[in-house]
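Priority: medium. Attachment 1 of 2:
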């Protein structure tokens, strides 16, 4: 009861002291990020980010509005920026498709730039197309004066699913205690039968216990795509979670020595880039809000190295104090780096066979050496850039 009392007092305090700031004052800016390729049953996390723009922010409120036929509210928690300021997230459903969130703390700590809320939704059975989430955001400084509210939109793209929507039976079994039996439960059948047969208080207690106990936490890889190919390669990994007590946190391990980004702890679908060839077994640990956890069975993936890049020719051309550099070859993957006389350059890459640099300057008579380094560490042989082609083009007619 004490947390409720604290929240109630704080809400009353804010409602009395939220006075408008003077026009022209620095104001925080809120944003979010959409999510694509979701399917029915997915649990997704939408972040709400804040850029203070120099404003002093000590408390945040947000009204979340969404399509309840496509999205089911799971919960919300403070994001890294909110937690770092010692703030707690609370939320209160206001009706179908409406939730009010508050980020507050019994302190005067300022909230820094970053993710302030993490909202979790479950994709409803039968949902498809695009579902929009609208968030009306407000903030207050440490004296209780509030900033103008702003609206944030985030789109959730839902792929069509063959899974039919859950619909209740038109004529439920007359002997089934519908008010006591949790729908769709595969467990607790014995307790349910005891309650139906005896009708005693002990049976009612068993039914109540069955309602109170969550289903066991289960998680598995729903998809890993692609599972093979040439590096560098982006791989989409998606985990399906059921049971337990939401919200969930995920500890991703891509088995390539890299650490997962902080935001991935709240994502059931992530994209990871594998840079080096080899066989990997990505896995993930899923933990619910009660501390129960499961390890998802790894899915092996195998990636091969692309053909070695080959630099065949480099030549200089141009007039005046600066020249341009053309580089040709084959098997140049995206993201290559061109080095000229040992210095990294910002070359324009045209497909897998050419690079182009403009406005270079070299001491007269100094040789120009070029090589290309691929994102996976493959290095071409050094080639000396030729200047004769420019001379032939310019003066060949007078020779």
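Attachment 2 of 2:
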């Amino acid at each position: 009861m004490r947390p409720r009392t604290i929240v109630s007092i704080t809400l009353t305090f804010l409602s009395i002291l939220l006075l408008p700031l003077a026009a022209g004052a620095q104001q925080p800016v809120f944003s979010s990020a959409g999510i694509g390729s979701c399917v029915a049953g997915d649990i997704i996390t939408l972040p709400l980010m804040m850029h203070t723009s120099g404003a002093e922010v000590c408390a945040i409120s947000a009204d979340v509005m969404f399509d309840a036929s496509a999205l089911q509210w799971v919960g919300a928690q403070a994001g890294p920026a909110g937690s770092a300021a010692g703030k707690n997230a609370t939320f209160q459903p206001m009706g179908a498709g409406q939730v009010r969130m508050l980020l507050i703390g019994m302190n005067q700590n300022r909230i820094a730039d970053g993710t302030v809320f993490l909202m979790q939704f479950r994709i409803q059975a039968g949902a498809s197309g695009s579902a929009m989430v609208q968030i009306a955001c407000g903030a207050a400084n440490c004296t209780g004066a509030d900033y103008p509210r702003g609206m944030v939109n985030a789109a959730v793209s839902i792929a069509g699913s063959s899974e039919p929507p859950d619909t209740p039976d038109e004529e439920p079994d007359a002997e089934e205690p519908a008010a006591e039996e949790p729908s769709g439960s595969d467990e607790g059948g014995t307790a349910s039968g005891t309650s139906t047969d005896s009708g005693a208080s002990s049976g009612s207690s068993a039914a109540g216990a069955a309602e109170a106990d969550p289903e066991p936490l289960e998680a598995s890889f729903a998809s890993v795509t692609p599972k093979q190919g040439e590096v560098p390669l982006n791989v989409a990994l998606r985990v399906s979670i059921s049971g337990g007590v939401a919200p969930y946190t995920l500890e991703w391990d891509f088995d390539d020595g890299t650490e997962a980004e902080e935001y991935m702890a709240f994502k059931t679908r992530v994209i990871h880039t594998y840079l080096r060839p080899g066989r990997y077994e990505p896995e993930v640990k899923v933990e619910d809000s009660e501390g129960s956890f499961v390890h998802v069975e790894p899915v092996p993936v195998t990636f091969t190295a692309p053909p070695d890049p080959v630099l065949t020719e480099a030549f200089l051309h141009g007039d005046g104090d600066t020249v341009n550099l053309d580089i040709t070859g084959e098997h140049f993957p995206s993201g290559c780096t061109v080095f000229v006389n040992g210095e990294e350059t910002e070359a324009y890459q045209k497909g897998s066979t050419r690079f182009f640099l403009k406005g270079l300057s070299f001491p007269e008579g100094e040789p120009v050496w070029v090589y290309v380094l691929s994102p996976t560490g493959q290095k071409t042989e050094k080639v000396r850039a030729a200047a004769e082609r420019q001379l032939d083009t310019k003066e060949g007619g007078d020779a």
